[in-house]
Amino acid sequence: MKVLFFNSARYLVIGIPQGIAVLSAILKKAGHEVELFDTTFLKPKRYILDSKKPMAGTTVYKKTPYTLEDLVKDDPGVSIEEEFQKKIDSFKPDLIAVSTMTINYDFAMRLLKRVNRRGCPVIMGGMHATICPEDVIFRDIVDMICVGEGEESLLELCDHMEQGKGFTDIPNLWVKSKNGKIYKNKLRPFVDLDKLPHPDWSIFDQRHLYRPFMGKVYKGSFYTSSRGCPGRCTYCVNDRLGEMFKECGRYFRCQKPETTAMHLTELKKRYGATWFKFGDDTFLLQPLRLLKELRDMIKPLNILFGCSVRPDTITEEKVKVLKEMGCVAMSIGIETGNEEIRKKVLNRNISDSQIEKALKIINDYDIRISTFNLIGLPGEKRENVFETIELNRRLNVKSANVYVVYPYSGTKIASTFNIVTTKKNGEMIPLSEASIFHLSKMSPREVEALKKTFNLYLSLPKELWPLIKIAEGSGAKSNRVYKTLLKRMEKIV
Ligand code: B12
Ligand code: SF4
Fold first, then answer.
1. Is 48 left (phi over 0), alpha (psi -120 to 50) or beta?
2. Rounded to whole angstroms, how far apart are CA atoms 105 and 100?
3. Which of 363, 337, 364, 356 is nearest to 348 (CA)?
4. First-to-last C-alpha distance (Å) of the chain
5. Max alpha carbon distance in the chain (Å)?
6. Judging by DSSP bridges, how do beta strands 2-7 and 33-38 pair with one another?
7. How far apart, in whole angstroms, are the C-alpha atoms of residue 314 and residue 468?
């Protein structure tokens, strides 16, 4: 069977999607032929860098000897649909296997509609198909979807298709028959994470491995050693997923240290990867005992890595073990500096003092911290955003990611506030326009202005705050002031 994976990423949003990497490895191992159509490095004709409204607030990083833009500067602008058509015509796939998060879904659908698939069926999997299966299966272009994990289901589907067997009853798949009937099959138990093969990075453009860190460039990408999160934060899909998959096994599971170590060793050997970002939702949920075993196994590899953590999982012992293992960066969700909003609105039962204690430990071990912050939260006022800024300042945070909360389908926030995230034409309201949901007590304009200037308020001395206030505006003077302040901020980083 010939399977064409389709990664519908935005231009230059790099990082190897682990879903495709693992599924490709499984199919190849079983003798199927795999190719990839990936939009990450296809420079759209008439592409203007930075012309789009940003999704996140401005952050600045240490300069590296070369940038991702340098790596793509000689690439010609292309018509993405023509490239897709060429790929279909040359490879002649028996199945197109699409993987998307919600954010990439519309783009994938648009492209699929514009090409002639020569009758090739389409299966869609990934976070969007999992969380919104009803919406996806009713699209004409989609023949099947995978709800949840795809390792066993996609392999079974390909085997059945190749052998000419029926495939309407494969667990985790919803299948549309020729007469339009939809078979919604039961869910299967979670896969055994220790039986997974090494992720297949070979089908990807190797520029995905570009990893700048603190002024140097390394090679590497994502690796996930656990799946699931027991948290029930109201803005996160895990709240819904935990419920959906409760009969499939323990929702949070982790790989044995020897499996993780074996895969990292192989990825270093095959692709020269020395910098990994663990994609685990909350890396330190793993017990100390397992972390110590992992440390002992991967220390000789001499790799550097980053991971995402929740403040309430931080202990000095765990951070020490991670440091010894090669941890150089941690992303940590503060979300808001207002404890009441954090606890009541976001359902994160984490106090300011827990956050402060956690960050102090991480700082003490000289691990670079980047915080995740949300603004535009339900009921939030301007002064609450400043509580978030002040908390980050108190903790001496140098790198803060700030997003306007987006009420994804399937999250508690979306259901509580009856939010529909699609426009009349069926396409999704982009992330960069999240402020129009108007959940906070601020105007969308003010939320956008604070997103833009959050890091200026965080990094620059308070004497400059009146100027930053001017930079919040959108006129010519505000833009001039904004650019000057941005330059000041770049000097500090
Ligand atoms: C790593 C990661 C990233 C990375 C890398 C993305 C990439 N290229 O893969 C980066 C940092 C770039 C990223 C960015 C963002 N991310 Co992110 N990310 C993750 C994370 C932590 C892990 C994903 C992962 O690799 N999982 C492991 C693999 C094995 O699982 P999987 O992809 O789901 O694949 C399995 C199944 O879904 C299925 N499957 C997948 N594809 C297919 C295809 C077929 C055909 C079949 C049959 C099956 C199948 O089989 C796979 C194996 O079981 C998830 C959290 C999570 N738990 O999933 C969030 C997550 C996917 N991200 C999320 C979000 C919101 C974002 C951002 C929008 C954040 C932001 N505000 O900027 C950006 C968007 C970037 C962009 N512009 O495209 C949300 C998505 C919500 C949604 N409704 O889509 C998640 C779920 C986080 C969360 N808890 O809310 N992200
Ligand atoms: S802790 Fe993070 S991954 Fe877990 S539910 Fe909350 S936001 Fe989602």
1. beta
2. 6
3. 337
4. 51
5. 73
6. parallel
7. 34
Q: Which residues contact 156 (CB under 8 A, 6 or more apart)?
A: 167, 170
Measured in Å, residue 281 CA sits from the centre of ligand 2 at 7
Do 227 and 221 touch, CB atoms closer than 8 A?
Answer: no
Tell me: the pLDDT tens digits for 422-431? 998 888 999 9
Closest ligand to residue 430's CA: 1
Measured CA to CA, the distance from residue 383 to residue 150 in angstroms comes to: 45
Are 362 and 369 a contacting pair, CB within 8 Å?
yes
Ligand nearest to the CA of 148: 1
Tokens describing residue 61: 């990083």
Q: Check residue 48 and give its pLDDT.
A: 62
Number of the ligand closest to the Cα of 410: 1
Pairing of strands 95-99, 368-375: unpaired
**Which of 16, 35, 98, 101 to mutate to test ligand 1, by most ligand atoms within 8 A of the CB atom?**
101
For the cut 80, the answer to whether the pLDDT of residue 51 exceeds it is no
Instruction: Report d(CA 37, CA 11) in Å as an integer.
Output: 13
> Which residues does ligand 1 sit against, CB inside 6 Å?
9-10, 13, 15, 17-19, 22-23, 55, 97-99, 101-104, 123, 125-128, 130-131, 146, 149-151, 154, 222, 224, 236-238, 279, 281, 403, 408, 431
- pLDDT tens digits along 372-391: 999 999 999 999 999 999 99
What H or E segment, with its residue span, contains residue 275?
Answer: strand 275-278
**CA-308 nearest atom, ligand 2:** 2
64 vs 14, 72, 214, 251, CA distance in Å?
A: 17, 15, 8, 40
210 CA → ligand 1 middle, Å:
19
Q: What is the mean pLDDT of the segment spanning 166-194?
A: 96
Residues in the chain: 493
3-state secondary structure labels for all residues of 26-94: HHHHCCCEEEEEECCCCCECCCCCCCCCCCECCCCCCCCCCCHHHHHCCCCCECHHHHHHHHHHHHCCC
CA 488 to chain CA centroid, Å, is 30
pTM: 0.96
Q: Whose CA is nearest to atom 8 of ligand 2?
A: 236
In sequence order, the β-bridge partners of residue 44 are 78
Confidence of residue 322 (pLDDT cuts 50, 70, 90): very high
234 lines ligand 2 (CB under 6 A): no
Is residue 130 lining ligand 2, measured as CB closer than 6 Å? no
